[in-house]
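Notes from hallway chat w/ T.B., transcribed later so I don't forget. T.B. wanted the structure written out for a chain they're using in a teaching module, and asked if we could keep both sequence and structure tokens in one place. Agreed to drop them here.
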Amino acid sequence: GLGIPADPLFRSSYGAIYVALLVGCTIYSPVSAFFFFAVITAATLWEFGSLMNAHVHTGMVRPVNVMAGVVLVAAVWLSTIASPQTAQMFALYGLLLIYIIVSELYRHAKTPLRNWAFCFASQVYVALPFALLPLLSIVYNQETGELVYSWIYPLALFIFLWVNDTFAFLCGCSLQRFIPYKLFPRISP
């Protein structure tokens, strides 16, 4: 894992730093937003791979999987600004996915199909949502006829998620007195 201590003070501090960086990078510029979400994608894919390798007994090739996820994020971000490098980035992403498949054949892994499945699942579950964020942030300006970066939409998405999670937690805590049964204690105590 990332090694974040379980102490609530540390977790709150890390959470506050994360929120400040997300808001600051998203508002500052599309370039800072891209780099922030590329780093978050890399860290999240690495964590996903670590958890799957430890608890599901897979043998995911984490460095290549992380690289593929970051390339996907870059490819979609470049496509929103109609960059000429978009095709090369999507081609590189495809080559990295093919590498993941071929490398499993030469590694002689016990469960290559499971490794492929979890690598591709992490691309869909983790990398794709971060890659699609610029589709929210690039809007058409009718006055100038240009595509412009608007930070309000991706930031609104995160604010809606945070508010939803916060109120779900608060409702769960307040209803615990009346309904003492836990719905999924293995997922959320």
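Follow-up for T.B.: The CA atoms of residues 104 and 112 lie 6 Å apart. Might be a good example for the class.
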